[in-house]
Amino acid sequence: MTLRAVLVGILALTVVAGPSVARVQAAGEIFIPLLVYRTGPYAPNGIPIANGASDYFTLVNERDGGINTVKIAFEECEDQYDTKQGVECYERLKAKNPVLVNPYSTGITYQLIPKAPVDKIVVHSMGYGMTATADGRWFPWVFNFPMTYWSQASAFVKYVAQQEGGMDKLKGKKIAHIFHNSPYGKEANPTLEDLARRHAFELTLLAVDHPGQEQKATWLQIRRLNPDWIYISGWGVMNQVAVKEAGSIGVKMDRVVGNWWTGTETDVIPAGDAAKGYKSMAFTAPGAEFKVHQDIFKHVYDKGKGAYGNDRAKVGEVLYNRMVVNAMLNVEAIRTAMTKYGNKPLTGEQVRWGFENLNITDKRLEELGMKGMMRPLRVTCENHEGNGLAFVQQWDGKKWNVVSDWIEPIRDVVRPKLEAEAVAEAKKLNYTMRDCAKEK
Amino acid sequence: MAFFFDLFVNGLMIGSMYALVALGFVLIYKATSVVNFAQGDLVMFGGYIAAALVVLYKLPLAVALPVLLGSMIALGFIVERGVLRPMVGQNVISVVMVTIGLSQVFQGSAAMLWGAQTKNIPLPIPLEPYVIWEIYISPVNLVAALVSGVFLVAFVWFFRKSRMGIAMRATANDQQAAMAVGINVRFIFALSWAIAGLAAALGGVLWGNLIGVDTQLALVGLKVFPAVILGGLDSVPGAVVGGLIIGAVESVAAGYVDPYVGGGTKDFLPYVLMILALMVRPYGFFGREIIERV
Which is deepest, A27, A205, A366, B140, by most CB within 10 Å? Predict the structure, then answer.
C-alpha cells in the first residue's frame, strides 16, 4: 500500500468517525446525542454547557454503572450554534436511536419541534425554545421545564416589585428592556407589555442588533431615559458589551438585571470592576460546593475523565451547573420511565412518559447531592414547564452570589397567555389537543 | 440637539477604532493587492496575545505592550513570508480563499492556545464618565479614540515623509517601476503585513478592553468593508474618513431611527452608504481611479 493510500484511508476514517466521539453506543445502552458548540462565536458559552453534560453522564456511568445499570452512551456533534448544522447533527445522530435531545439553541429547537412526534424523540429545551410548548396538551413531545422566558420575565417584574416595596409601587416606575434583536430576545416583550399595562409602569423596549459589539447609541438612550430598572435579554458578545456600557455610563449596577442567558462568568469578567453589582435571573445555583461536584471530582476528574482535563476551577460555573442540572433531569426522567417499563434500554415513547411524570422532590435532590442547586420540580401532562421558580444572583467582582429568595412567576398572567399561544402555534402544525385525563 | 451631539461624538470615537482596523486592511491591499478577509481575526489574535500576557502570564502592561507589538509585527512577517508570498501570481479568488482560511486558522489556534473563554484586558483607565456640554464621554472610548488617532497620524506621516513609507507608496503605485529603481518589493510586502499586524495589535487591545477577548472579537472586521469601500480601497486617509463616517452614521441611526422601526438600521445603513458610494464613486471618496486600456 502506498503512503498516499494510507493517508487517504486515514482521512476517510476521520470523516466517517466524525467529530469528538465521547462514548459510542453499544447494545444494551441508552443513547443521548449532544448538540454542542465548542467552536464558533458562541464557544465561550458552549464549552461549559457541553462539559457539564459530558461530566454528569460520565458520573452516572462511573459512579452508578448507568441509570439503574443501563449505561448512557453519548456522542457530541459540533453545530457552532448554527441552526442548519444543528439540524444536520440531529439527523445524523438520529440513526443511533436517541431517546431525547437537548438542542441548546432556540433556533434549533424550533426546527426540531415538528420532528419530535414523527421521530419519537423527546425535545427538552430547558429555559429556552418556544414558550408555548409548555402546554403539554398540544405539544406532548416537547418539554421546557423548569421555566419559560415568559415566567422569567414575570419573575423579574415581581423581583422589582419586591425591591420597590410591593406590586403597587410599580406604578410610574420606568423599566427598560434591552434585547437581542431576534425571536429569542423579543420573547419576553409581550409579557412585559402585559404587566406594564396591569401595573402602570413605563416600559421602553430597545433592540440591539446582532452581534451587539457596538451598543453606544442604545446606552446613550438609556442615559437620557434614566430608567429605574433595566432588564437585558442578550447572548454572546452582546452581554459583555452591555454590562460594560452600563458600567461606563454610570448606571447603578444593582438595578441592571440580565435574564438567565445574560448572567454568566463570560458576561461579566470582560467588564472588570464595572460589572460589580450586576444581577441576573437564574434557576440553578452557581458554585462547586454541592455534593454532586465532589462526586464529579472523585468519580470523573480523579480518573482523568473530566471534560475540563486538569482545569477543575471551571467546574461550578453558571452554565456548567445549568447543564449538570439539565443532564440530571434527563437521567431522572429516564429513571422515572424505568419504574413503569423496567430497567432496560427504553424507546423514545417510554422516555416521554418519564418526562411527563417527572417528580423531583427535595429528598431526591438531597440524594443526588443537589439540594439547593435547584428547586423541587413536578411535570404533568398539561404543564411541561413544571412548577419551577427563579432567583436573582449578583456578581461581586469574583463570583456570582444568590441574593434573593426563590421567586414564583406570576402564573395567573403567564399561563392564559401561554395557552392561547399554544393553540395558535399548534394550529400552524395541524396538531390536535389531547385529553390529559386519558393519559393518567 | 444635545442628544444628537452625544450620539455623533460617541460615534466618531467608535469610528476611529473602526478606522484603525480598516487601516491594516487598506495597507495590505494597497501594497500587495490582497483583499485580506482575516483582518478582524488578526485583531482578535492581537487581543488574545495581549490578554495572555497580562492575565495569564501576569506581565505588567509596560512590558506586555512592547512584547505584543513585537509579536504581532513578527506574525505579520511570518504570514506574508510563509503563506502569502507563495501565492504571488495566483488568481485573486485563490488568494482571497487563503485569507479566509487564515481567518479560521487564527480563530482555531487562538482558542486552542489560550482557551475559548472570554478574557479581560485590564487597562488603567477610570470608569467614571466625563460630561462635557451634556455629552457623555466614557474614558475607555476617549483613550481608544486618542490612541487610534495618534497611530493614524503617525502612520500617515510615515507613509508620506519617511523613506520606507515613500518606498511603500512607490510599490503600491507600480511594482515593476519600484523594482526598477531598486526598491526591495518583497520586503515592502512583508513590511505592509507587519504594519497591519501592528495596527491589529493596537486594535486588539482597544477593542478587547471594550468588548472582551474571545473569538467574537474577530467580528469587528465586518465593519471594515463598508468603511474601506466608502473611503477607497487603496486610500489611507479614506480608511480613516470611512471609519469615522461609519461610526457616526451607525450611532445617529441607532439613536434616532431604531426606536421607531424596532432596530436593525445600524446594521444595514453602513452598507446602504457603501452601495451609494459604489454607484456614485466606484473607487470610493479617496480611492484612485484606475483607467486601463482594453
Answer: B140
A35 contacts A79 by C-beta, under 8 angstroms = yes
A206 touches chain B (CB under 8 A): yes
Distance between A238 CA and the closest CA of chain B, angstroms: 9
SS3 content of chain B, % helix, strand, coil (to 5): 75, 5, 20
What DSSP string describes B256-272?
HTHHHHTS-HHHHHHHH
Q: Do residue A176 and residue A103 come from a single domain?
A: no
| A248 Cβ under 8 Å from any chain B Cβ | yes
Q: Report, as an integer, the average pLDDT of A339-358.
A: 97
Range of the domain at A29: 17-147+287-378
ipTM: 0.78
Instruction: Write the CATH number of the domain with boundaries B2-280.
Output: 1.10.3470
B63: left (phi over 0), alpha (psi -120 to 50) or beta: alpha
* pTM for the predicted model, two decimal places: 0.85
Most B CBs within 10 Å: which of A206, A214, A318, as the mutation test of the B interface?
A214
Mean pLDDT of A68-96: 96
Interface residue of A226, A248, A253, A262 to substitute, partner B, most B CBs within 10 Å: A248
Partner-chain residue, chosen from B14, B116, B210, that has the shortest CB–CB distance to A244:
B210
Measured CA to CA in angstroms, residue B199 lies from A236, A371, B107, B162, B207 at distances of 25, 52, 18, 18, 12
Whether chain A has a CB inside 8 Å of the CB on B126: the answer is: no
- With 90 as the cut, is the pLDDT of residue A144 above it? yes
pLDDT, tens digit (0-9, with 9 covering 90-100), for A21-44: 445 556 689 999 999 999 887 888
Query: Mean pLDDT, to the nearest integer, of B236-252?
Result: 91
- CB contact under 8 Å between B116 and A44, yes or no, is yes
Q: Are A260 and A405 in the same domain?
A: yes
Q: Are residues A268 and A219 in the same domain?
A: yes
Q: Measure the CA angle with vertex B286, ends A215 and A212; round to 5°.
A: 10
Chain A residue numbers with beta carbons less than 8 Å from the beta carbon of B127 are 247-248, 273-274
Q: Find the closest chain A residue to B51 by CA distance.
A: A270
